[in-house]
Amino acid sequence: MASLSLRTSRHLATSTRTTAPWICQSCCQSRTFASSVSRNQQPPPPPSHQDPTQPPLPGTRQDDAPTHFGFSTIPSTLKASRVANVFSSVASSYDTMNDLMSLGIHRLWKDHFVRCLNPGIRPTGPAGLRSESTKEEGQRILDIAGGTGDIAQRMLDHATTVNKDMKTHVTISDINPEMLAEGRKRFAGSDYQLAGRVDFLEANAENLSTIPSNSIDLYTVAFGIRNFTHKDQALREAFRVLKPGGVFACLEFTPHLSNSVLDGLYKRWSFGAIPLIGQVVAGDRDSYQYLVESIERFPGQGEFRDMIKEAGFLVPGQEGGEGEKGGWEDLSLGIAAVHKGVKPV
């Protein structure tokens, strides 16, 4: 996999805006993603939201319907607990896990992901000073499946150092308390915690009942949504909590590389080496085996783009297009991809 190796670079979240060769240049050319959506694109009909206290509507999915857990098929009611066991097992070594699964490139993907979302509100006054009318402003960011806090830290670093925004706040949400514990360790005693700019929420992304509708500016999920039982429901919840004009952004592994030869090599590495390393390094082959299988079962880029649209979001691109023309951005030949959507105003 030498072709996947990248030159080591310093942390990009607070660095210059130089575009690396493994990403597209157009992503970072605009201030916000929302401005890139065509004004002529008509928003889809808003999704209907069923009251969770009411009985299921006729024809809706039942809780005990079968779903996948890696390559296994299990009742939907069991998946959340099975996934919870996996992440409880790997919580303390989660970043190492992603290093193994991506050959360390995940750190650069995350830097790029955050930089192109450009979190925070820029100063608008003269000489770069924030005007009186914007001093109290700041983005409300919800980082889903963000337990260890690495995405949240990048968001806050970027907002603070690049956009000089000392008000933007991030809520780190995760269904797993062990993952949240790792995030709390990361931020313990930090300036962000002392300033009240970060908090933690133990919640299921499919039911964010404690978060008001139309209250979030930016919803992010990195390497987490493939583990959700009902991805469509999680997308509808993302749509609900976002403000009109708010952005949904997802960074996730993809099931297939764009090059078939490299795809075969990558799969041999994934299914052969990663579970073995998990067994040797962490004494946990099964968890790593599931994580590799979960990538294979995740929808392809075009299918996931359509799911985002069906949830009500506007997505740029053309029907039948690939990559940016299709409404997503492939990273490192398609090992991972960035998907975005905007809630119509």
UniProtKB/TrEMBL annotation:
One of its GO terms (cellular component) is extrinsic component of mitochondrial inner membrane. Keywords: Membrane, Methyltransferase, Mitochondrion, Mitochondrion inner membrane, S-adenosyl-L-methionine, Transferase, Ubiquinone biosynthesis. It is found in: Mitochondrion inner membrane. One of its GO terms (molecular function) is 2-methoxy-6-polyprenyl-1,4-benzoquinol methyltransferase activity. It catalyses: a 2-methoxy-6-(all-trans-polyprenyl)benzene-1,4-diol + S-adenosyl-L-methionine = a 5-methoxy-2-methyl-3-(all-trans-polyprenyl)benzene-1,4-diol + S-adenosyl-L-homocysteine + H(+). Pathway: Cofactor biosynthesis; ubiquinone biosynthesis. It comes from the Eukaryota. Residues 42-58 have a biased composition (Pro residues). GO terms for biological process: methylation. Its EC number is 2.1.1.201. It is a peripheral membrane protein. InterPro entries: SAM-dependent_MTases_sf, UbiE/COQ5_MeTrFase, UbiE/COQ5_MeTrFase_CS. Residues 35-70 are annotated as: Disordered. Belongs to the class I-like SAM-binding methyltransferase superfamily. MenG/UbiE family. Methyltransferase required for the conversion of 2-polyprenyl-6-methoxy-1,4-benzoquinol (DDMQH2) to 2-polyprenyl-3-methyl-6-methoxy-1,4-benzoquinol (DMQH2). This is 2-methoxy-6-polyprenyl-1,4-benzoquinol methylase, mitochondrial. The gene is COQ5.
